[in-house]
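Build the 3D complex.
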Amino acid sequence: MSTIKQLAPMRRLCFNHLLAVSVLLLAAALVQECTAQGGSSGGDHAPLVSPLAKDPATSLYTISIKDGSGPLVVDLAGPLVWSTCACASGHPTFPCRSAECDAANGFNWPQQGRQWQQGYDAGADGGDHYCTCTARPCDPVTRARCAAGDLTTFAMSANATDGRNALYPVSFQAVGACAPDWLLRSSSLPAGAAGVAGFGRAPLSLPSQLAVRRGFGRRFALCLPGVAIFGDTPIFLGSYPPDLITTIASTPLAANPRNGGYYLPVEAISVSWPNWNLATTRAALPPSALELDATTGRGGVTLSTVQRYTAMRSDVYRAFVQAFSETIGKPGFVKPMPAVPPFELCYDTFSLRHVRVLGWDVPLIRLELGAGASMNWTVDSGNSMVQAADRTLCLAVVEMAPEAEHAAAAPAVVIGGYQVEDNLLVFDEDTEVLQFSGLLWGSGATCSGFNFNAPQ
Ligand SMILES: *[C@@H]1O[C@H](CO)[C@@H](O)[C@H](O)[C@H]1NC(C)=O
Ligand SMILES: *[C@@H]1O[C@H](CO)[C@@H](O)[C@H](O)[C@H]1NC(C)=O
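Done.
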């Protein structure tokens, strides 16, 4: 009994404190908004750069951008920024009837159930109560475990950049959702991570917010696991002298009305082995197997930073694995090894050649892109093969789990993080174009090659 008595006033204290802080911060935000509109500053439109890292335990990628906490997990298709909110320090909130609240709940994706929009209804008496906006942060890996949390703002900072160096620090606020501690703990995120930064097609994703706040285009670059760059800028990585933006390939991007993902117009998948003069083999996919159905949101080829390896729907997987297996078997000297789950096709490294720059001499995988692409997307061994056991090199592609395959808006292929490491990807939502470099090994540019030092 006595513990309950002691707890009750503390909780009220915290609530009062929160309310006070909210009011103060809202007032501060309003003042800031007014000065900005008064045109007191032309605004700093310089692009921003943040370091990325890969967590060895979970293989998830994190971005160091949030002040006073651990990094956030990069979720390429995610709609929101979320983190835990300490009650002790209070957090600002947004009213239910606000543009931010609409933005947080407005995307009509199937998983955004209406029950989470209770914030829209004011008091039952129709009175003018302050009602707090609630958003719905989800576990980025499964997207199944979600919670309700206040919409709030988080203090963040990054460096301005000219594409060559980090220039000067910039602080800003980003709107995001408070998540309960259990969501952070249960989401199999890296031990030190403080939450998630969604990079998807949604008004409150991190790139969307930065684009509006900084007045630069809706463009961002990811080079896993090294660097993220927001805004319209040339990009220099390492010793490779030219601006990569002007030299890398491009393809149109597609959107899925059912989620925030970025989709590629892949028409076919083929396997070839130019070093052994073998004819290209196309995976014998069922007709329209890779097509995105715009009404149901099913199918299509999308990119993910929270899935480790590329996952293919079983019809696509079977046809692809057959094409790869046939091609690698043709010269007759590559010795298969027992499967190492989750991988099926594995080979004895003693029977393979290692070529100096690009890794193992194995067949190349090609994603054949549709109209408008400047090149097909070639996946080199550094992105296609993984050393899964001693002397065992495996094709780093997995068959989609049945429950994932039958989920709403399930894609035909999810290209995983491993397949785009050490590739520069530049997403431009204004022009709906993705620029892609392919594997950078041997080019002199690397994802860890961004110069985070100030210019000399
Ligand atoms: C900005 O760059 C400097 C080095 O030039 C670094 O020390 C600092 O941590 C960076 N700030 C942010 C917010 O990334
Ligand atoms: C991609 O590959 C296919 C088949 O080889 C070819 O017909 C097509 O022209 C290629 N696309 C581009 C953009 O090079």
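The longest strand covers residues 149-161.
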